Amino acid sequence: MAPTVTRTRKTYTQTTLTSSSSSSSKTKPAKPVVAKSNSDVLLCIKPEFATLIREGKKNHEYRKYKLRDTVQRLWLYETAPVSAIRYVMQTARPKVPGEVNDPTGVGNDDFDAGKKQSKYGYPVRALWELKKPIKMNDMRTRFKINPPQGFMFVPEQMVQEEKLEDMTKLF
User: What is the strand order of the sheet 36-45 is part of?
Assistant: First the structure.
């Protein structure tokens, strides 16, 4: 059977399985449509880099891709062994190699010299810590999402339920 996937801009709407040996087709129920925020993105990050950001030693998050200009905050999903969202980072327009000009941050000089694969550096403008981390199971049950491979737009429900003013502002 070859799956045929129909997508909308935000989520999968229908998956249809068809078989070349049969003229019948089976339709699975559509996944629920989850409203997404245009200003908030969920990123996967290794725990050691999240720690460096929290300690103020890493002042840019480097990525190979450019996010939409509407993005203002990065929700940091720490991979195993943490497997949770613990921090929300305020950011600004990404910088390109040669624009950071700040030797104090981890990786900044290599980025400016073009030695990294990453082409965009998202500045860390502020950082909040959630009072209670959102673990992988909570992401699935409360917000109907799985941790992204790279990034995804945050469900609007998460932005509404996990307000910045309820978090601890670290800087």
Answer: 151-155, 36-45, 73-78, 84-90, 126-135, 168-169
* Cα 17 versus chain centre, distance: 30
pLDDT tens digits, residue range 13-45? 333 333 344 445 566 666 667 899 999 999 999
What percentage of the chain has pLDDT greater than the value 90?
A: 80
> How far is Cα of residue 19 from the mean position of the Cα atoms in its chain?
36
pTM for this model (two decimals): 0.81
Q: Which residue has the tokens 């040996």?
A: 21
Instruction: Name residue 120's beta-bridge partners.
Output: 63
User: How does pLDDT run across 44-53, given as a tens digit for each residue?
Assistant: 999 999 999 9
Q: Can you tell me the distance from the alpha carbon of 119 to that of 100, in angstroms, rounded to the nearest whole number?
A: 12
Residues facing 4 on adjacent strands: 16
What's the CA gap between 171 and 166, in Å, rounded? 15
Beta pairing, strands 126-135 & 168-169? antiparallel
Place of tokens 């609007």: 156
Which runs of consecutive H residues, i.e. helices, occur in 45-122?
A: 47-54, 108-112
